[in-house]
UniProtKB/TrEMBL annotation, chain A:
GO cellular component, one term: plasma membrane
Designated name of the protein: Putative Na(+) H(+) antiporter subunit C
Pfam families hit by this protein: Oxidored_q2 (PF00420)
Subcellular location: Cell membrane
Membrane topology per record: Multi-pass membrane protein
Family the entry assigns: Belongs to the CPA3 antiporters (TC 2.A.63) subunit C family.
Key words, A-Z: Cell membrane, Membrane, Transmembrane, Transmembrane helix
Protein source organism: Caloramator australicus RC3
Residues spanning the membrane: 6-22, 77-98
PANTHER family cross-referenced by the UniProt entry: ANTIPORTER SUBUNIT MNHC2-RELATED (PTHR34583:SF2)
TrEMBL record, chain B:
Organism: Caloramator australicus RC3
Keyword Disulfide bond: no
Superkingdom of source: Bacteria
GO cellular component: plasma membrane
Compartments where located: Cell membrane
Sequence similarity: Belongs to the CPA3 antiporters (TC 2.A.63) subunit B family.
UniProtKB keywords: Cell membrane, Membrane, Transmembrane, Transmembrane helix
Transmembrane segments: 7-25, 89-108, 120-141, 147-167, 179-203, 215-234
Protein name listed in UniProt: Na+/H+ antiporter MnhB subunit-related protein
Signal sequence annotation: none
Coiled coil: none
Membrane topology field: Multi-pass membrane protein
UniProtKB/TrEMBL annotation, chain C:
PANTHER family assigned: NA(+)_H(+) ANTIPORTER SUBUNIT D1, NADH DEHYDROGENASE
Lineage: Bacteria, Bacillati, Bacillota, Clostridia, Eubacteriales
Domain of life: Bacteria
Classification via InterPro entries: CPA3_Na-H_Antiporter_D, NADH_UbQ_OxRdtase, ND/Mrp_TM
One function term, GO molecular function aspect: NADH dehydrogenase (ubiquinone) activity
Keyword vocabulary terms for this entry: Cell membrane, Membrane, Transmembrane, Transmembrane helix
One Pfam short name: Proton_antipo_M
Residue stretches making up the NADH:quinone oxidoreductase/Mrp antiporter transmembrane domain: 116-406
Signal peptide (from-to): none
Protein name (Swiss-Prot/TrEMBL): NADH dehydrogenase, putative
From TrEMBL, chain E:
Keywords associated with the record: Cell membrane, Membrane, Oxidoreductase, Transmembrane, Transmembrane helix
Residue ranges of every copy of the NADH:quinone oxidoreductase/Mrp antiporter transmembrane domain listed in the record: 120-418
Protein name as catalogued: NADH dehydrogenase (Quinone)
Major subcellular location class: membrane
Superkingdom: Bacteria
Keyword Transmembrane helix: yes
Membrane-spanning parts: 24-44, 73-95, 102-120, 126-142, 154-178, 198-223, 235-256, 276-295, 302-324, 330-353, 365-387, 407-426, 447-472, 506-526, 606-623
Species per Swiss-Prot/TrEMBL record: Caloramator australicus RC3
EC numbers: 1.6.99.5
Membrane topology, from the record: Multi-pass membrane protein
Amino acid sequence: MAQLFILSSISLLFIGLFGVLTRKNIVKILIALNIMETGINLLLVAFGYVENGIVPILTSNESIMNLTKMVDPVPQALVLTSIVIGLGTTAFSLALAIRYRYNHNSLSIRASEEEEGVNI
Amino acid sequence: MRDERSLFINIVALLILSVIGFYIYKVSMDTGKGIKITDNITPQMRVADRFMNKNVIKEESKYVWGGTAENTSANIVTSVVVDYRLFDTTLEVIVLFVTILGFGFVIPKDKRKIIKPTTILNRWAPILMILMLMIGGYMFVNGHLSPGGGFPAGAIISTAVLIGVLAGRKTLSQKTLKIIEAVAGISIFSLGIASFVITGNFFQNFILNDRIGDLFSAGLIPIFYGLIAFKVAAELSNIYFEFYEEC
Amino acid sequence: MNSIVFLIVIPLIAAFLSLFLGKNDKILAYIVTLFNIIFSILILFSGKIPFNVAIGGWRAPYGINYAVTDLTIFFLVLVNVAALLALTSVREIMEYQFYSFYFVLLSSTNGIVLTGDLFNFFLFIELSTFAVAGLISYKRDRLSTGAALKYLILSSTASIFSLAAIGLIYKTLGTLNFADIANKVNNLNEASLSLILILYISSLLVELKIFPFNMWVVKAYEASKTSVNLFIHGMLGTAGIYGVLRILLMVFSKETGKLTLSGNLSSILMLFAFVTVIIGEIGALTEKNMKKILAFSSMAQLGIVLFGISLGSFDALKGVLYIVISNYLAKFVMFLTVNEFSKVSGSTNYLDMKGLGRRYPVLAISFTISALSLMGIPFFAGFWGKISIIGNAVFSGKLELIGAVLILIASVIEGVYYLRISHTFFSQGHEREGRISRVYCLLPMILALVILFIGINPDSFENIISILLDEIKSPEKYIKLILSLK
Amino acid sequence: MVNRVYYLGLIIAFIMAFGSLWALLTDDLFKAIVVFGIVSLSSSVMFLLMQAPDVAITEAAIGSGITTALFIFTYKKLEDRKDER
Amino acid sequence: MVEIFIIPLVTAFLLAIFIRNKKVVWPLFLISNLYILLKLWTLFGKWEIEKTIYTNYELFGAKLSFTLSNNPLGWYFAFFSAVITLVISVFSLGFNQKTKENVAPIWMLIIFSNLGIFFAADWITFFMMWELMGWTSFFAITNGRDKALNEAKYYLVLSLLGASSMLIGIILLGALTGSFEIFASAYGLVQVFYSEKALSIAAIMLLLFAFFIKSAIFPFYMWPSKVYAVGPEDYITFMSSVMIKYGIYPIAMFIVPVVGSLDLPKILNTANWIQYFVGYLGAISAVLGTILAIFQTDMKKLFAYSSVANMGYILLGFASMNIVGFEGALFHAVNHMVLKAAIFLTLAAVIFRTGESEMHKLGGLVYRMPITFLTFLLGIIAAAGIPPLNGFGSKWMIIQALMSQKMIIFAIAMIFASTGAFMYLFRALASIFLGQLPDRFKDIKEVPLTMLIPMIIMMIGMLLIGVVPGVVMKPLTTALRAVGYNVNIASWTSLEGALKNSTIDLTLVFLIFLGGFVISAIMYILGNKSETVPQEDNYTGGEYPEEWGVNADRFNYSYSFYQPFKEMFEPLLEKISIDEFFASIGRNFEYMSATVQGLFRRGEGAVLLFSIGVLLLILGGWII
C-alpha cells in the first residue's frame, strides 16, 4: 500500500517536472507546477503512512491505546502548510501571467523581452 | 504553442527525468550500511511519537480521554499544526498574505462588464451564503476535534463571499476585507505577544486545565483557527473581488 | 532572551499595519528597521550569546527553536544593517505594497538567520521568495513582469525539490531540527544522504546564484529598482550565504565543520563555483547596462564564496568571510553610486555617465575602491579573502588548482570592465542639469572607507572572524546548546 | 477489505497519472484546467486513503476548489482580452 | 624610513584635494619628491633600518607581517629613480601648464608603490605594492582621455595577469620555504630545490613571468609601444625610465642569487638551462626591439621599442651569471634610466611645442629648439653606446661578461642590436631635428625655462656618468658588498672588465673623443655653406601631391625610411605576431560575453538549466 502511494506520487512529480520543462504556455507551466505540488504533498504524506494505520485523531480511550497504529501526524501538518503555499504561488503567478499576457500579447514563456535603454 | 525545438526539448526532458528516476531507483536499491530512504521507520522512532503521546515537556507522562494533558486537542494533526509547530502555521498565513497582496498588486485592473445574474441565484444566494458560513464556522470551531481546521474553513467562508459576488449582491467592500485581514493577522501575533507577557514564551498555549474531547478544549487552538479562517477567507475573497468587481 | 522573536514578529505586524498608513509607511519602515538593528546590537552586547529559544515552550527537537550563536548574530547584524542602508535609497513615494513586501522580506531574512528548524527555514525562504518576487514586479512593466514570473516559477520548482529533501530527512531521521539532524546524520546511508543533499543543495543554490541555477539573477536585477536590488543583494543574499554555511558546514557535514559531502558532491560544487565565476565575469565584459554588470559581478562573487566553502579548509573559510564582507559593502557602494548617477544621466548605461566622476569625485572614488576590493587588490578588504582562498586552493588538488587559476583570470576580466567604468566616470563629459545632494555622497564614502580600513588593517576584522571560525569548527557545541534545553 | 482499498488506490493513481498527462499534453487550455481539477480532487481521495482526512479536506477545498477556480477565472479573463482585440 | 612612505601618501591626498589648482599641485609634487630624494640620501649606508608591522592575519598557520627594510640593492634603485623623478617633476611644472587633466595624485601613489617595491623585505608587501602600481598606472595612462583607453586596458590586463601569476608564485614559494621574507625564501628555495624540483621551478617561472611582463621582455614586448604612444608625456618619461625597471630589480634581488647558487647541469659546459632560457628571451627582446624600432614612424613608439631592446641587454647581463655582467646589468639599468629620461623629456618638449609625434611631419627643429636638440643628441649618443657618454660603459661590461662566459650567440645578438640602434637613433635625429623646418612650425620657440633646466641636468648627468662612472659604480659596488657579493669598490673613473687586462679609464676615452670633436667642429666651420630651398621641393620635385589626393608628408624622406630593410624582415615579423594572438584572445572573450548575455537575457530555460544542474550533481557522483 505504501509503495503504491509513493510510486503514484513520484509519477505525478515526474509528470509535473516534465511539463514544467517542456511546456511553453505559462498557464500550462503553472498547471504542471501544481501537479508537482500535488505530487510532493502526496509523497510527504506517504512518507508518514503506516501499513493499516488509523487516522491520528483521538475519539475515545481506545484510540489512545492505539497510538502505535496511527499514521504520522507531522508530515500531514507540513503538507497542510505546503498546500496553502501552493495556492499562494499559483495565485501570484497567475496574476503575473495575466499581466505578462497584457504586456507581451502572448502567453509563451519565450515572448521576447528585448527592451533595452532608459531604465531608472 | 508549437515550437520548432519542441521535440528536442521533449527528448532532453525525458532524458533528464530518466536519469533522475534511475538515480532514485539506484539509491533505493543501495545496500550500504545506515538508514536508507526505503527503510520503514514508524512514527514511534520520530519526533511524532512525543506529539502523539503528548509528553514533550514531561517524559513518561500518560493521558486519558477526557483528561488533561500538555495539549488537549483531540486531533493530533491540529495539535501539531496549531500548537507544537504554531510558528510554521503563522508563517504560512503570512505567505498567503504576501502572495495575495502581490496578486492584487500585479493583476491588471481593467473595466469589465458584469453579466447580470439570474433571478434564482440572486434569490437563493443569501441562503447559500449562510449555509457556507455555518459549515465554515463549524469547521474551525471543531478543528481540534475533527478533521478540518482553519484553512478549509476559510476557503469555505470565502465561497460565501464568492456566491455573493456572483449573485450581484454587495456583501463586503474591499476596504472591510483589508481591515479583517489585518486585524486577524495582528491578533494572531498579539496573542503570541500576550503569551510572551503571561508565560515568557512566544505562542505558548496559556489556557490550561481543559479536557481532551470537550468542545471548549485545546486552549487557544480554536481561537487561532478562527483567526486563521477569517484571515484566509478575507484574503481569498480579495481574489474574487479582483476578478469580478468593477474597478 | 525569548524576546528574540520580536525581530521577526514586529516587522510582520508592521506589514499588516502598512496596509493602512499610506504615506507614513516610510516612517514605519525606518522605525521598524531601526528597532531591528538596535535590538540585534543589544543582543550582541548582552553577553548571553550563545543561547537557544524554544517557541511556545516546546523544547528543541520537538518544537521550533531559534538559536543565537556568534555566527547568527554576525549575519543578523549584517542583514539588518543592509535593510537600513537599502532603505536610504528609497526616495520617491512608493505604494503601500512595496513596504508590505519590504517588511515581510525583513522578517523572513531575520528568520532565515535565526531559525534552527529545517521546515521553518524552508518557510522563511519561501516567504522571502514571494516578497522578492513582489518587489521585482513592483514596476509592473514588460521586463519586471517577465522577470518576476520566471523567478517565481524557478523558485517554486526549487522549493518542491527542497520539500522532497525535507520529507526524506524526516522519513529517515525522524526529525526536522538542525542540531538533531547534525547529531544523527552519521547514521544515514551514504547513497541516501547524497540523494537528499542533491535535492536540497540544488534548491539552496538558486538563492546563492550559482550558475546552472541562476537564470533569474540578471533579469531580476535589471527589471527592478535600485532599492530592490539592494534588498536582494544585502538581505536575501547575505541570509542565503548564512544558510549555506549553516546547512552545508554544520548540519549535513559528516566531519566537524568541513564540507565533506558524499559522492564527490563537493567537487561538483567546486566545478559549479568556478564556472559561475567565469560565466559571471565574461557576461559582464561587454555589457553596458550598469545594473546587469553588477548582477553578473555579484554572481561571480558568490561563485568565489562557494569555491571557498567547497575547499573544505578553515583558512579558506576565513577568506570566504572576507569576500562576503567585501562584496556586501562594495555592492552597496556601487548600487548607491549607480543610483545617483543614473538619476543625473537619465539612464543606466555607463557610457551616459561620462564625466560625472569629475563633478562628484567622492562617489566615483568610492566606486573605484569597491571595484578594486571586488577584484581582490591589496589595500582593500577583498584581497585578504582572495589570497586566503587562492593560497589554500593551490595545494589542495588538481581541480582546485584549475579553479584557482580560473578565478584569477576572472579577476583580471573583472578588472578590465570595472576600471573601464571608473575611467568613464573620470573622463571628460558634457554638462548636465541634475544635481546630487552631498548627503547622498556620504553613505557610499563611509562604506568605501570601511572597505579601505579592513584592507589596511585586517586585524580589525580578523578577530571577529576567528570567533566565527571557532563556532564553525565545533558544531558539537551547537548541538549541545540546542539539544540540552529542557 | 484491504484489497478493495488497494484497488481503489490503484484506480485513483491511474486516474491521476493519466489525468495529469492529459492535462499537460492537450492543446485546449480549458480542458487542461478542468482535468487538473479532477486530478487534484482525486488526490484528495488519495489523502483520505492515506488516513489523512485533515489534508484531504484542505486539498479538496483549497488545492482542488480554489486553485481550479483561480485557473478558470484567469482563463476567462484572458479569453475576454482575446475578444477585445 | 617610515617618512618616505608617509610623505607620498599624504601628498597624494593633498594633491587629490587641490586637483583643480595647478599652481599648487605641481610645486607640491616637486617638493615632495625633493624631500624623498634628500631622505634617501641620508639613508645611504644605514642598511640595518627596518620597520615591521605585525598583524593577526594567519596564512598557512603563520601570522603575516609586513616588513620594509633599507636593503642596499633596493636603495640603489630607489635613489636613482628618485633623482630621475625629481628632474621629471621639475619638467612637469612647465609641461602641465596647458594640459586639462591632472595626473599628479595618481603619480604620487605610483611613487609610493615605487618606494614600496624597492624597500619591501617580504613578498606580501612586495606584492601589495606591485598590484598598487598596476591599477594606478591604468588611471595614469588614460588620465581621463578616451583615446588612451584601449592601450591602458591592454596594459592593465597584462599587469593583472602578471600579478596573478606572481600571487601563485609567492604562495608556492611561501609553502615551499615556510617564509615570505625575500632573503629567507631565496635561501630556503636553494635548500629545497633538489627535493621539490618541479614546484620550485614552477615558482621561479611564475615569478619570472610577472617580472618579464613588467619589463616588456619578449613575449610581452608590445605594451610599451602602445602605452607610450598615448599616455601623458611627462608621466611616460617616468614610466619608460623608472617603471620599466620594476621587473629588473626583483630579478637581481631574488632570481639571480637563487639560480647562481643552484648546481644545475650545464649545457655545453657554459651555463645551465635557466641561464639560457633567460638569455634567449633577452637576446630575442634585444634583436626584436631593435628591428621593430627601425620601422616605426611615431617617435614615442620608436623609443618604446628601444626600451625593449635595452631591457634585453640587461637580461643578457643577468644571464651571464658573472659578477661583471651582473654589475654591468645593474649599471645599465641606471644608465638607461638617465638616457631614456633625457630622450623622452626632449620628445615631450617637441610634442609640447608642435603637438606632433609622427616623425615625418617634423624636421628642422634644431633651428628653433637648440637646447632640446643638444639634449636629444647626447641622449641618442648615449643610447647608441658611443664612448664619451654613459651608455657605453655598461654595454661594454655586459658584452665582456658574455664573452668570458663563452655565450657567443648572446654577444652576437647584443652587437647586432647595438649596431641596429644606430640605424633608428640616427634616423630619429635626422627626421625630428635636422632637415628643413616645415612652414607650419615657423613660429615655434624653445620650451620655457622650467622645462629646459631638467634637460640640461640630464645632459650633465649623462656626460658625468659617462666620464666618471664611479658616480654610479661606487654606490652600486658598496651596495653589492653590503648584500654579500665579493666585489671590489669601483674607482671613480675606470671600469673593471671580465676579460684579462680589460680595465679601461673612461676619462681618457673622453679626452680622445673630445679631441675628435674639436677636429670635426673645425672642419664644419671651415667647410661649405648649405643652400636653402622650399621644403617640399626637396621631395615632391615641385609637384603638388595634394592635387592627387595624397598627403605630401608621405613623400618626406623619413616616411618609410627603411623600406628595403623592412621588406627583408617582413616574413619574420609576420610569423611572430604576438599582438594578433593577444587580440584574438580578447575577441574570443567578447564573443563569449555576447553568448552569455544572450543566455541570461532570455531566461526561459531557467527550470531546464536547473534540472541540468541537478543532473550534473547526480552524474558527478558517478563520473568524477
